[in-house]
Structure formats: C-alpha cells, structure tokens
Amino acid sequence: xxxxxxxxFDISKNKPFGxxxxxxxxxxxxxxxxxxxxxxxxxxxxxxxxxxxxxxxxPEVGATYSYYLESVYYDNSLQEGLDKATVGMTKYxxxxxWEADYDNICPLFLELGDIYLHRKALNISSxxxxxxxxxxxxxxxxxLRVLFENAVVISLQKTEGKKYTPHPSxxxxxxxxxxxxxxxxTMTVNRDKDxxxxxxxxxxxxxxxxxxMNVLSTWNSYKKxxxxxxxxxxxxxxxxxxxxxxxxxxxxxxxxxxxxxLVKDEKGALEFxxxxxxxxxxxxxxxxxxxxxxxxxxxxxxYNNLFAVDLSKTAxxxxxxxxxxxxxxxxxxxxxxxxxxxxxxxxxxxxxxxxPDREYGDVLGRIKNGKSSLTLEGQEFPIxxxxxxxxxxxxxxxxxxxxxRIYHGNAEGEWFKRDSISNNKWKRATEEDLKKGHTEKSAIxxxxxxxxxxxxxxxxxxxxxx
Length: 466
Hints:
Layout: E1 3-10, E2 21-25, E3 31-38, E4 51-57, E5 65-74, E6 77-78, H1 84-89, E7 92-98, E8 109-113, E9 119-125, E10 133-135, E11 151-155, E12 187-193, E13 200-207, E14 214-220, E15 225-227, E16 238-246, E17 257-262, E18 269-275, E19 281-283, H2 292-304, E20 307-310, E21 324-325, E22 336-341, E23 349-356, E24 364-369, E25 372-373, E26 375-376, E27 386-394, E28 403-408, E29 412-418, E30 425-428, H3 431-439, H4 443-455
Parallel strand pairs: 1-5, 11-14, 20-24, 26-30
Antiparallel strand pairs: 2-3, 3-4, 4-7, 5-6, 7-8, 8-9, 9-10, 12-13, 13-16, 14-15, 16-17, 17-18, 18-19, 21-22, 22-23, 23-27, 24-25, 27-28, 28-29, 29-30
C-alpha cells in the first residue's frame, strides 16, 4: 500500500472570491487544495444564497504513497466532536460560512466526504466560534439558514425610524428598504440629538425581540464596504450598539466612535471602538464615558475637518505651545491661537480671543470649557467660516466666562450669555443687548455688569449705581 502521510486541515484559511483552486501548507508541510464557492448549492442541490463554502481537499496520491486526514483545526484550535472513524475516511471537508463573514471567523457547518464526493457526515457548530461540533441526524441543511439567529451585521447609516434585517445571511443591511420577511429578527434604530453633547448625534440600534446580539461586522453604505473588527467579537453578547456622528455629517458618511453595551449584569459594560489605520474597528481603552466628548472631538477633526474651541485654554497656560492648542493628540492639523483682545470701554473685564488657523479649515464643531461642554441656546453645529470666538471674563473671577461672541460668515456674530454659574448653559443675548453693543461705547460694560449681578458670582461685588 506504500507510505501513508497524515494531513491536518485548517478551516480558518481564506481565499479571495473566485472559483479557482488555491492551496496552503498544513502544519506537516503537506499541500492542501482549497476551493471557494459563493452562493453555493449543497450536495442535495439545495441553493444557499448569502453563504459561501470552502472545500479543503487531500493532496493527490502517488504510486507509492497516499494521504489520510488526521484532524481538523481552526487556526491553533482542534475541532472536537467529529467522529474519528469518519475523519479517517474523509478526503474532503466543506466548511459553510456566511458570505458576510469576510474573515471566516464563524464556521457554521462541516461536511465530511469521500474521494467520490459522497457525504459521509454533516456537523453543525455547537455555538458561535465554538470548537465543538454535533452530528446532524437526520441530515438536513435547512437549519443552516437560521443558525445563530441573533448574529448581526450592523448597518452604520441606518437612521431613526428605519428597521432592517441584520442577519448575516441576508443582504438587507446593505439596502435602504423595510424588512421583507419576519423569519429573522429586525433591528430598530433611535436617534439622540446632542449626544453626548452639542455638536454630535448618536444612533442606538437594538434587536426588536429584546434579546442580546452577536456582532459579526458592520456595513458602511457610504463606501459600500464592510468595516470589520480587528479582533473577533461575534462570540460576545451585546444589548445595544450606538454609533456617533458629527452633527454636520448629515449623510452619516463618517462614523466616529462605535459604542457596544455588553450583557454582563443589569447595568452592562461599555466598549468603545474607533477605526484604526487599517480601516478596522479597534477597541480603545482610552475612551471612557467621562471623556467621550473629547475623543469625539479628535475623531471629528480627523474625519470631518472640524475644530473645537476650549475656553479653559489661555495664553498663560499655553505659553509652552506658543499660545495655541489643537483638537487632541490624534488630530493636530488644527491650531487655535489664544490671545488677549482689547476690551475698549469695558474696564474690569478681560476679553480672550480664540482664532483658528483658517488655512486648515474654519468650521467650528462645538465649544467647551475644559471637561464641560457648553450648550448654546438655539444654536446648531457645526458653524461655518468662523474667524474668531471672543470670551469675556470679569477680573473679579477671571476663570468664569460670562459672555461670548462667535464671529462667522461676513462679519456676522452670535452673542451668548451665561445662564448660571453652576452649569454651562448659555442663552442667546437679546436683540436689544446686541444693538446697544454697537451704538453705545459703554453699553457692553453695562451688559457685563448686569450679567455678573444676575449670576451672583461670589468673588464679584459690583456697585449698584454703575
């Protein structure tokens, strides 16, 4: 019979789309043939749109030698539960995947067959990314269609009121239409404006059956491609997914951060992902709930070319940076210069100006004061063609801004005054205040004096007869 050599199949192996046969070396140095079939049919002739099959085949026998299958692995993990006697007689293994599973991270079915391409055994995965397999008796391929019903591909551009079928075996996540069938669970989408702060919007997605979901990948309709994960997370269970965008990105072309809520306890646990240099979602442990808005500023700068003004920045605390600051370590192309601006007839007050380097863009994404975001009454972000943001501070409390003006467009300006010293809500200044500021030399000082009185700033004592 000659020499018999053992072969180990690795069902994690991938190949590009196409019907040509490629090969790979197993751990023993044998050449294993690999064939990919998309939208395939089973041996029984059943068609499976939305799936793909990879066939692993033993090397050709010679006059004095032959090969037999010793075992099946997924990367470095032995696949268990396969009948040893059947494995020993197997000449090929067909592995079923969802077509949307670009990285072959979730094998679904294993079909073992002989040299005549006769099926010897059909095995179904015992769980998502499980290394254990269960023999299917009686043989039926139909369970493949609804296997892992809570697995999803998240469509990143779906908006409020839109439902879709996210199951990887369907293409509904790629198209803008309502679900055409009820066999699979649908995903509901809700919109939160000014989330987590003004200048951003978030879309929360959940399965309509309330069950946890297993996230295989995400679909970007803008670029018509998958944004996959650097590391597989499909084995995890999540309550919801939240996608953050800049408010000015009305077509939702550039997702900034993906937030996933794990099923761990009643409160859950949050994971934050950003797109890395390879175009994949990568978990970022530096992003937390308490700094989410700052990290969004960095991403908004990077992808949408927007900048944020930070009122806590002064010429004094920026002396080492030549009086300027950027949006953050991940986006330094925007520089905002800070300097003192003459207050004219406004004795007792200091005026600080924030001026963007307009060579790199002049679109304002939001205004913040250190860790706190400002909420400007009735103001929509982003604001285009911003040339300057002026901020007034009383000298009696030099760290508390009380009045600001945003210059944009053709010398247009928006005035806002502090609503309360205990928060960062700002009201639009009245038209009367605005007119006084232009017609009376001392009017702006009167506005500031009255505002400081209204705010009851403890450090400030303003004479009542000013």
